[in-house]
Amino acid sequence: TDFLDVPQFDNRSVAYVPIRPEITGLDRPVDVIAGWDELIYVSDAGSSEIVSYDQAGNEQGRFSVPGLGVIAQDRRLDIIAAGTLDTVINGNPITLPALYRIDLNKTGDYGLENASIKKVIVHPFYFKSSTPTTSDEQVEFTGITPLANNRYYVSRNGPSNSPNQFGGPDNAILVFDENDEYITP
Question: Which of 70, 130, 132, 171 has the fewest CB atoms found within 10 Å of its own CB?
């Protein structure tokens, strides 16, 4: 080990620098992104709202998504948000994980306060049409990463992880195309 450089250690005080602007008034923030539109978007799971801020930290708008989790913005400036969808199947109420595509320019006035839901992708209906199981309710979308061509990756966690099950194991990375069509796990 004589070829390794011994690190030099200086005992000194730790300094903290506050981040400005300070963003407050959130209940339980779980994700933050710097959008392609130069706005800051925060996913607040406590209020189930996406909150947008300008670079000075001024709130620009809010948009509600049920069961909100992680968010991303693609190059078309649409927000893709992981959330949940409450529905009734065969007379039974059920809550399923869902991906929401949010159009920020539907009314011609750009911004989160004028946004609308363009499309909802519900698990497991993007890869099968049969009745969901109880394990499908326990699936969660944990990350979204858009690519330059507006395809995107989604990480998915859940209890069923047999590699031979239809749709692949729950713990998987999914690929969706630019039209929100499921390609493959």
Answer: 130
Taking alpha carbons only, the member of 115, 109, 141 closest to residue 63 is: 115
With tokens 């799971």, the residue in question is 45
What's the CA gap between 140 and 80, in Å, rounded? 15
Instruction: Please name the residues in contact with 61: beta carbons below 8 A apart, sequence gap of 6 or more.
Output: 51, 52, 111, 112, 113, 114, 115
Token reading at 107: 């009314």
Partnered with residue 44 across adjacent β-strands are 29, 49
The tens digit of pLDDT for each residue in 127-184 reads: 888 788 888 899 999 999 999 999 999 999 999 888 777 777 889 999 999 999 999 8
Mean pLDDT within 40-69: 95
DSSP-assigned beta bridge partners for residue 182: 176
115 exposed, middle or buried (CB, 10 Å; 0-12, 13-18, 19+)? buried
Q: Which two tokens stand for residue 4?
A: 């390794």
Give residue 1's pLDDT.
66
Helical spans, DSSP H, in 7-133: none
Q: How much is the mean pLDDT over the chain?
A: 90
